[in-house]
Structure formats: C-alpha cells, structure tokens
Description:
The complex is a heterotrimer of chains A (about 290), B (about 300) and C (about 375).
Chain A: H1 14-42, H2 46-50, H3 64-71, H4 83-113, H5 119-131, H6 135-147, H7 154-178, H8 182-190, H9 195-203, H10 208-224, H11 227-232, H12 240-249, H13 257-288
Chain B: H1 9-43, H2 60-67, H3 69-100, H4 107-115, H5 122-133, H6 139-145, H7 162-187, H8 191-199, H9 204-215, H10 217-233, H11 236-241, H12 253-263, H13 267-296
Chain C: E1 4-13, E2 16-26, E3 31-35, H1 42-50, E4 57-62, E5 65-66, E6 77-80, H2 92-102, H3 107-121, H4 136-148, E7 154-158, H5 166-183, E8 186-191, H6 194-200, E9 203-208, E10 211-216, H7 218-223, H8 228-233, E11 240-249, E12 252-258, E13 264-268, E14 281-286, E15 291-293, E16 304-316, E17 320-327, E18 330-337, E19 347-353, E20 358-360
Parallel strand pairs in C: 3-8, 3-9, 6-7, 7-8
Antiparallel strand pairs in C: 1-2, 1-4, 4-5, 9-10, 11-12, 11-14, 12-13, 14-20, 15-19, 16-17, 16-19, 17-18
Helix pairs in contact in C: 2-3, 2-4, 3-4
Amino acid sequence: MAQATQDTAIRTGRITRTLIYLVLLLFSLFYLLPLYVMLANSLKPLEEITGGGMMNLPQVFTVEPWIKAWSSAQIGVEPTGLRPYFWNSIKMVVPAVIVSTVLGALNGYVLTKWRFKYDTILFGLMLFACFIPFQIVLIPMARMLGLMGLAGTTWGLALVHVVYGIGFTTLYFRNYYAVFPTELIRAAQIDGAGFFQIFWRILLPSSGPIAVVSIIWQFTNIWNDFLFGASFADANSQPMTVALNNLVQSSTGVKEYNVHFAGAILAALPTLLVYIVAGRYFVRGLMAGSVKG
Amino acid sequence: MAVSADADFKTRLQNWIPKLVLSPSLAMMLVFVYGFILFSVYLSFTDSRILPSFGWVGWENYDKLWRLSHWETSLINMGIFAGLYIVICTCIGLGLAIFLDQKIRGEGLLRPIYLYPMALSFIVTGTAWKWFLDPGIGLENVMHSWGWESFEFDWIKNRDYAIYTVVLAAVWQTSGFVMAMFLAGLRGIDNEILRAAQMDGASNWNLYRRIIIPQLRPAFLSAFVILSHLAIKTFDLVIALTGGGPGRATELPATFMYSYTFTRNQMGIGAASATIMLMTIAAIMIPYLYAELREKR
Amino acid sequence: MGFLDIDNATKSYGSVEVLHKVDISVEEGEFLVLVGPSGCGKSTLLNMIAGLEEITSGEVRIKDKVMNGVHPSNRNIAMVFQSYALYPNMTVGQNITFGLEMHGVPKADRDKAMIEVARLLQIEQLLDRKPGQLSGGQRQRVAMGRALVREPDVFLFDEPLSNLDAKLRVDMRTEIKKLHQNLGTTIVYVTHDQIEAMTLSSRIAVMNGGYVQQLGTPQDIYDTPANIFVATFMGSPAMNVLPARVEVLNGRPHAEVVLHDGSTAHLPFSQDNLATWAGRDILLGVRPETITDMDGADRKSSNIANMTNRIVVTEPAGSDTFVSMQLGGRDVIARMRSDAEVAAGQDFNFAVNMEKAVAFDPESEMRIVP
C-alpha cells in the first residue's frame, strides 16, 4: 500500500484548487456533523434540545447525561445505566480477540510455511466464512450454544466471535507471512529449531505490525457487533451495543435525547480511541480485508 | 548400512504438527460455518416454527416466502438501498480520493476525518442520525427555530422516503473507506505514465478519464464486492435508525429473517430467507475470492 | 563410497520430474560446485542434500549413513543461503549460536565457539549488532560464521555471492577459497556464475534441464566439454561453435570452414581419428582465446593453423581486444592482445590453435571423442 505521500504529476489551476479545497472541507463537515451533534447534545440539558437548539453549543454545560447514561439510565427493566453492559463487552471482547489472533497467527504460519496439498482450497473456505450473512448460522448456533451450556453467557458470545473471526485473522497473518523469507525458516530448520521454536523465536518477533492490525480489527468488529449480541445474549450478558439500542428504543417515559447521545459516545469511545491511537493500523486492516494483501 | 529413516521421529512429528495446529480452526470452521449452513438450508425445507423440527415440506417455505408482501417489500428496499448505496459510495469515494490526491495541504488531517465513521458501531451511527433527522427535535426543528418556518424534512417518518435516510447514514459510514481504497489505487499508479500522457498533450480531464480511472479497475471491483456484501448484510443500522419502519418501509432481508425467525416464530421461512441471502452473497464472493486466490499462486 | 554420496537421486513434483537420476560422489575435503542456468535443478539438488526437500527416489548418504527422511538438523550439515537468512530479531552473536542452542549446547561452550568463529572471520566487533545494521559483506560473513560454528560434515552454499556487488563478490570468492584451503571442509556450492565455478571448485557438475551434463575438474570441463551446452555455458565469452566439414588432406583430418567471402579455409585437427568423419558435417568448437594474431599464438602448441578472414567489428576491452568475424556463416569472436593492430574491414591473418579445438556431432550435440 502506497500510503506515503507521493507527488502526483497532475497540475491544477488556482480556481480549481480553491474549489477542491472547498469540496473537501464541506465533506469533512458532513463526516464530523454527527459527532458534533452527539458531543454537543450530550453536554446540555434536555430542554435545550427539545427547544430547537440541537445545532447549538450547550448554553448550560452539564455532565449529568453522561453520569446518567453510565450508571442510572433505565435499560430494559433495570435502572443500571450502561456500566454493566460495558463490562460485558470487555469480558467478551478480550478473550475473543486474543484467541482469534493467536489462532490466526498459527494458521497463517502453517498455510504459508508448511504448505500441503489443498491448502489454498482450505484457506478459501476459511475466507468465504468471513463474508457469509450471519443470518444463515443464527438458528443452529443458538441450538449449539444451548447444547454446550453456553446459551446467554459472555463466554458463549466470545466463542461465536472467535469462530467467525479466525477467517480474517488468518487472512492477515497469511498475507503477512507469505512475504516473510522462507529461507529464514529453512535456516532455522537446519539449525535444529522445531515447529513452535521457529514460530516463537523467528516469526513472532517480526509479527508486531500485523498483530496490531489483527487485534484492532477484531476489537473493533467484536465491540461493534450487534447481531450476535442481540441473538445470543440474555439480560445479564448483553454487550454494549445491544444495551445502547435498548436505551434509545425504549418507549416508556420521556425520551432523554441527551442521555442517548452520551450513551452513544460511551459505546463508541473504545473503538474511537483505538482509531485515534492506531488509525494507521486500522486502515491497513480494512484494506487487507478488501484489496489484495 | 544403517537406515536411519525410520528412526527419525522428529521429522515425522514435524510433518504432523502443522496439521494438528490447523485442525481446531478447521474443525470449528467445518462445524460452525459449513455444518451450520447445511443445517439452516435443511431447516428451510422443514416445518420448523418456534423450534427446529424435521418434518420435510419441500419447497413450501420458499413458495410462501415469495408470496409474502413483507418479503417483496424487503427485496424492493434492498434493491433501492444497495443500488444507491453502492453508486453513491463509489462516486463520493472516488471523487474524494481524486481530490485528496492533488497534493492537498492537510491531507493527513482530512483522511482520518473521512474514515473515522468506519470505526463506529452501526448502532451508534443509527442513534446519531435517528435523532438528527427526527423532525420533532432534529434538523427540521432547528431550521424552524432559526426562522425558516416552512422548512420540512420528515423523510425518516415518511413511508416513501425513509429508505433514503438509511442510504444516507450508510453512505456516511462507509464512503470514507471507499475513498481510502481508491486513494491507495491512485497512489499505486506509475507517475511516469502520467508524465508521458501530459507530454502527449492530455488535459487533466482526459488524463483521469482515459488513463487513470481505467487503471483503477481492481479498486472498483474490490469496492463493488465489499459494498454489495455490506449492503446485503445491513441489519444493525436499520434496527437502530428506523426499526424497519415506519410500518415496513425500511425492512431489509436481514431484518425480515430476524423477525420471522425470532419474533414471528416462522423458523422455516426465516431459514429460507437466510438461504437466499447466502446464495446472493455467494454469487458475488465466490468468483471474486477464486480469482484473488488464483492470482497469488 | 565417498564422503557424500548422491545415488540415483530423482525429484518429481506430481508427475513432473525435475531431477533425473543424479549420481555424484563427493570425497572428503572436496569443493564441488553445481553450476547451471536457473531452473536446471541445482538448488533442488542442494535442498535434497540438506533435507529441505524430500527425495522422490534414490538415496543421499553422508559418511555412509542414509539421509533420506532424516531431519535437516540431524544430518550434521550447515547451509549458507542466497539471502543469508539471518534472523532479523537476533544479534549477530545470537544468530551464530542459535543452532548450538537448539542442539542443547551449554551457554559457556556456545560463547567459546562463537568467539572462535568470530575471530576467524574477523567479525568480533559486530557480535552485538542486529543484521539490519550490517553491510552486505558483513552479513555474508555472519552467515558463514553461523555455518562454521556447527563444525558440520558438509557445508552447503546456495548462491551465496549473488547478492553482492561485483567487487565484493571477487573478494568474498577469494575468502571462501582460503577458508576451504585452511579448514579442509567438504563443500557443495551452487551458483549460476561459471567464473565462480571455475575459480572455487575442485570439481564441477554442470547441470541443465534436471540432468548432470558433465562432472569433472574445472580443466576437464573447460578443455573437453562433454557437449555443446557445457562448451557454451562455461567460459566467457562463450566458445565459438560453427559448422564445418571434415576433409582428409595429406592423410590428416582437416576442418573445412567457410570464410566471409564464401571461400574455404582448411584447419588441421590434432585428433587423427577424426578421419573417420571424412566428408561429414560437424560442429567445430573454438574458444575465443585460441584465435589470435600470429604473434599472440600459443608457443607451446604444436598445431597452429592460419587463415585470412575479414574483421567485422573490434571491441577493445582494456586487457584484450575482441574481434568478430564471419566464419562458417556464424559470428565468431577472437580474443587478441590489446596491442594487436586490428581494424574493422581489414583482411587479417589469424592464428588458430587447433590443439584446443573440439568437434561435436551435429545430431547429438555430443563431443566427438577422439
């Protein structure tokens, strides 16, 4: 990927350039608008919003909506706020990200450096699994989680995310290891290193960047998932996204838009933070999932 | 002469370890993906209602499905949504990429702004747009309070226009990503070719139309595949933004499947609709993946 | 039985046989070079010796032990790779001792061995650096150090010099040769560079199309190439191969060659029994350095022939001047001293050292053995 700024040979006139800047600026406003709306309105009292002031900056500045969204808003039947669901999401995301990344790394290693007959077909099957509409597995998965005694648990959700995440993690590591010099593996073999020693001592120390890509991708995807959470979680294991949706869609009482916006930011915060800290790797992950690796 | 071939346990072990390491993933994939697909497809031929049941009914569920106006609505919506979503995202993505590729000052700032929506959950996106477009408190209300009393914008509550708000929010979320794909494509084009074309007297317009855009074919293909697959899978956004309403105005196959399976207890019909979704995605993804994997050999 | 025996070794990928019944026996202390164009099977053969690729049929034996199916690390071999294959995350010292560590050698012994090898290769000051901080030549040394420290029975080199620039390549070539002379190790060395093959080896196996075309000492291969492939592959500029007809004049076989103007010259062979080919077409092989002016002709030769032919192009190259002419309908190169007075378009009296000339059967392309 040629992300580094490279001079284009195209030259443009002054008027064209001004127009270009104008368009680019307008679009950045378009992309920033919802973020502004969420942020500004999460910091003002409800009356300011209902009074037609959605686009204004807060006149009375308050963090009350945030506190309410976090710890006391009515979600479903309990006035717990989003806090317990935030931890549900963490408990689901962390093991799922770790396990799927480790498996992806090992799979990528095997598929590139220990090739065997039909390995490409196998990889193709894994890759296709990334793109299936998950509706096709919802019914049997619900049954299977029940049979395994994991129905309605965070562990069950983590398992689901591992299963449907290894396709992508394998893709990342496979493409990365494909360009890792095979001579190094051979040299290590002659030196007497075994399968795991080669992985641990030779390959893994060079895998930093792709591990970051894989972790970020998995983290974002699993954190943002709604379908599996809504289908397989019970009231005690619902992830953040499902809780947020319940908060916003609840039809009882006054609609506290400011609390909804605060909740939405809370749900977006972890992935946004990751994006701000490691956006480069996030983009790399996106691209690797779409264009040739 | 000592034959050590049989004695070398290490070599034989080394031949088995890779396959052993791969086997858990393989087993999970075979059971949880392909096994489950078969199971779901099988269910679509059974009389399953609230729970899976194994009474074979042949094509009955598919017959029923195609006669449901609800399904027809969701398919028509899918057509409108996918068509607009793919075309608009591609146009915006390509346009922004071309503009950003003009040695723009502040590119490093603009690019992350265009792309950050991709990091958000569709539920967050849906919530933000839901209230922003809500005529009661959102844009319309704001315009009224600013003195433009006749301003009307109630698409999200309007049966005929609600689907376009879904398009708007989805485009907002993914067009920056499409931009990144095209930008990578543009940066990959050899500058010498462009210089040569300029020597030949090509204008900027012709340069893009005749030389550059044709070279972006792989990026167009990837964008189409990714966007169409995202479109077919769209579910969370509709749930958060409109809940499928008003009425059934924004139902899509994914929400149709979900409500028939889990709230209307028509599992057979739900499975049939999921099967049709899978077939549609497979028709797009399999040729694409096949070509990608073959090229790499 | 040699030190390293390759016995009828064959390699196939699926139904495609890429290496056909290779038979080579290497003595202890020998420096065997496998040379050939890319795709000739030389690297495959080396990998089979190393155990990195399986042998489809046949045997590889080291010190009389069959190595088929033995893990590379248990063959007591070491290998230097084309890319050097230094572990990027380890220091030079760790790179060198990694193999010993994997074989369970205690740390103290490892360090001792490392210091010894580093001193031998003069890389002591580099031991704490990472490979990324080294120059090409230094990496090359580290790669050799990693091989040496194992004290293996056989060293395998896979085009170790091809990533170096021209000058460094010559220096390292000398160094490898010195190392071999001092340590007396057994080496199998793969290269596509015929000059490397000639300078380094005690024996050369010239390979093409998965076959060993000729196995012999450098001199053998240069003077008496088994076939046209070997003749033209070894030597630079390549040996001239041109159509000729055998004529017996005064009881002696001559090569009748067509000059630029269609007239013929008769060059007497040193090999009398070529007379059996009288009246038949052959391909005549003449190395450029055996076509000179009269002053430059080899004084030790007993068979210098003359012919007058027109010079087409002269190419001064400093130490020599290359002269091309039309002979037998082909472009033929002669190698003159740089002070030879030659000019394009001139009719010149060439001296041909026919003692070194070889004849090939045009059908089989094999050398006609006198």
